[in-house]
Amino acid sequence: MNEISPLLILIAAIFTNNILLANFLGMCSFLAVSKQIDTALGLGAAVIFVTTATTAINYGVYHHILVPMDLTVLQYIVFIAVIAAFVQFVEMFVERFSLKLYHALGIFLPLITVNCAILGVSLFMIIRSYTFVQSVAFGFGAGVGWTLAIILIAGLRQKMGYSDVPRPFRGVAIAMVITGVMAMAFMGFAGMVNIQ
């Protein structure tokens, strides 16, 4: 994997291997916070920051602490602890500088800690044997890809508020259908580059 350009990894993480639309990781907060574009954008920015920072830190912790001490069995616990610390930082920052966004995100801001997409990024980084630069590019791209998906669905859900959606499909059901269609649309980018 070391021969793949970080730019290609970045593009693939956004489009062809979108963490949400290709792996369906991070669906709980995606469905819950995707009703308004401004809220989705705020959560997306937080996810981009957390995935990028925690991927960089988790790379260093894994390769410079866990591997030399033969403690790789603890990678899940350590990765989650790093993610939780960063989410606390983001939560305090958002509360301090944007109280409106803090209240709009509500319980879903601290739930970034258990967002499986963020943990998945750190685990994919290890599984795919990325270098540090590749890992940071993948972390940033995965966050941007997740943000792109949540903004797209939020825009569509806002427009559907004016549509006559059949009663059984209202709410989460139609959001799941649209997410599936979006995932198929993003599969159209698969010929560009693939980082599996």
What does it look like?
By secondary structure, this protein is mostly helical. It has eight helices and no strands. Helix 3 runs antiparallel to helix 7 and helix 7 packs across helix 8. The termini are close together. The model has no long low-confidence stretch (mean pLDDT 88). The chain has one domain. The longest helix has 30 residues.
Annotation keywords:
single chain; about 200 residues; 8 helices
Work out the number of β strands: 0
Mean pLDDT reading? 88
* Low-pLDDT segments: none
Tell me the strand percentage band. under 5%
In percent, how helical is the residue content?
55-70%
Alpha-beta content class: mainly alpha
- How would you sum up the global shape? globular
Overall radius of gyration: 17 Å
Q: What is the N-to-C order of secondary-structure elements (H for helix, E for strand)?
A: HHHHHHHH
Number of helices: 8
Head-to-tail CA distance between termini: 10 Å
**How is the biggest beta sheet arranged?**
none
Total domain count = 1
